[in-house]
Amino acid sequence: METLLYKLTWPEVEEYLRRQDIILLPTGSTEQHGRHIAIDNDTFTAFEIAKRVAEKTGVLVAPPIPYGNSIHHMRFPGTITLTFNTLVKVYKEVCMSLLKHGFKKIVILNGHGGNINAIDQAIREIREETGAIVYNVMVFPMEKGFGSESLKILEQEGGGHACEMETSIALYLGQRVLMEKAEKMRKKLTEFDEKYMGKVSTAINFDEITENGNLGDPTLATKEKGRIMVEAVVEEISQFIEDLKKI
Description:
247 residues, alpha/beta, Rossmann fold, four-stranded parallel beta sheet
């Protein structure tokens, strides 16, 4: 069965809606990922995870939204960003279109942390205006998210962007990764920054943190680590989808 919405005809979508009301909406960013991973990685990862979940559960996948809120990466060439308000409108209007057609359960599969606040704002507005509940799921394994147990295989200290985790997943999913260019994060933090990081929040740009654009240590990445993390995330998200079908 074809699971990509944009590969169907409208009568096929109509037929799907007679038996199912769930759709996955992948989103990410177009932003720098160090010297070694392609700029589209967040969107690429979200879409690949969505396709694997769809294959296991039989639900449809909407076209991925390739742009996010990436203002903090704009000093690295190639990054494209949308403002917060624009991004909220994009998520909201895409979801409202899907709701209008009869998709009652929308699950946003997000591959970029910078999108979280915009997604949360959009789905809050949708809830208030329509009563519909839209779900927001991070596709990368997180300590309090899906695939958390798989994080135990990581060896790096720190991380969170183009790091051992993200590079391993990219390798497994078949992304363009230049491992010969991968290098441990070259910090640009001052002693003051180091002292108060995690305790004080401010607007900071990525080039003020890292010289090479990544965090952690991507040289520790392997395809096998990526397989373990991807399979864990796909399995757990798929279980969520199966439970969602029942309500």
